[in-house]
Structure prediction request, 209 residues.
Amino acid sequence: MTTPRPPSRLACLLGAVCLAAFFAVAYTPLTTALEAVHDEHPVVARADAIVVLGAGMAPDGVLNDSSLDRLVSAIVLFRRGLAPRLVLLGPGHREGPTEAEVRAALAGDLGVPSDALVVEPRGLTTRDEAALVAQRMRELGGRRILLVTGTHHMPRARLLFEREGLEVVAAPVVEISPVTGQPDARLELGRLLLQEALARVYYRLAGFL
Prediction:
């Protein structure tokens, strides 16, 4: 009978690092400190349109929490008279409505006039969304937008929209509280921060930023 070989020192070291990172993210204020880097206070200013970036939707057409948070925040801005239209983004799954269409239906139910809604479901990435919104704004007239997305996503999104020639007023949405004491919420916030950091690296290397 062959005696199992003990794990290598490298494997033990990687395991220890991963375990330490898990506990640091889940049970310490680390994510609060990291999120503070992305902290950008909303600026109340008029614009030509309020642009709501996609955030995700289940295959059955149910918007996820981030998508709802962004939509509600945008409707509040619209109700305050800060822009005459809402540009709603977000693709869908193979069958059924798109995120943009579901958002438009909900916005209509909440009293936003149909002629104030612009539905754009074709964007699959933030870069796609920036290009499509720039095209729509050229058609509609105006270049100043109130950009609604998550706080962690705002820095990259803002740069992409500005590269398309748009004037961006940031209207970030706090989708997960950075001061939460719940380990599962801290882990989700850590995942979002890591995902965004990797996306920024990729976009830099690809020359998109």
